[in-house]
């Protein structure tokens, strides 16, 4: 729905929690990313879904209840809403950080342009390098915050 919220059922009641994260932390991560080679970084919204296939608008799953045109229209709407990444974990993380008043950001790797297809065709060695990018950025962020590097 492109809403920054997590709907959690507690004792049979729906509790709506904000998933808004800290803009300053995001800007700081973006700034520090420019200090690292080969880590192109953008700030955008991460859309969290309940599953990898239909929830993410994929056409390649065992179940698919929509057309290619419907998928592309949905992805256009997501893009217009600022979505730059889709995954399945960040909503609870963001909501719990917000409830606990913790400053946080989500750092993800986007593996493919979903307007061009659903299959990941990136070579394994490149995927391994992509996997290390968030770790490198977050480690750099922590070192900067602790004053271990200037």
Automatic annotation (TrEMBL):
Question: A Pfam family for this UniProt protein?
Answer: PNP_UDP_1
Q: Report the residue ranges that make up the Nucleoside phosphorylase domain in this protein.
A: 13-143
The cross-references to Gene3D superfamilies, in alphabetical order and at most eight, read: Nucleoside phosphorylase domain
What is the top-level taxon of the source organism? Answer: Eukaryota
GO biological process terms, alphabetically, are: uridine catabolic process
Task: Return the protein name.
Answer: Uridine phosphorylase 2
> Cross-referenced InterPro entries, in alphabetical order?
Nucleoside_phosphorylase_d, Nucleoside_phosphorylase_sf
Offer an example of a GO molecular function term for this protein: uridine phosphorylase activity
Organism from which the protein derives: Hypophthalmichthys nobilis (Bighead carp)
Q: Cellular component per GO?
A: cytosol
């Amino acid at each position: 729905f492109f809403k920054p919220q997590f709907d959690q059922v507690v004792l049979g009641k729906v509790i709506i929690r904000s998933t808004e994260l800290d803009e300053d932390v995001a800007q700081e991560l973006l700034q520090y990313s420019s200090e690292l080679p080969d880590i192109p970084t953008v700030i955008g919204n991460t859309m969290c879904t309940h599953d990898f296939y239909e929830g993410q608008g994929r056409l390649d799953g065992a179940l698919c209840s929509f057309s290619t045109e419907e998928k592309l229209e949905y992805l256009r709407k997501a893009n217009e809403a600022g979505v730059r990444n889709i995954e399945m974990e960040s909503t609870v993380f963001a909501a719990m950080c917000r409830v606990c008043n913790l400053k946080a950001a989500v750092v993800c790797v986007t593996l493919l342009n979903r307007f061009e297809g659903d299959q990941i065709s990136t070579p394994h060695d490149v995927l391994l390098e992509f996997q290390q990018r968030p770790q490198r950025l977050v480690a750099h962020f922590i070192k900067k915050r602790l004053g271990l590097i200037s």
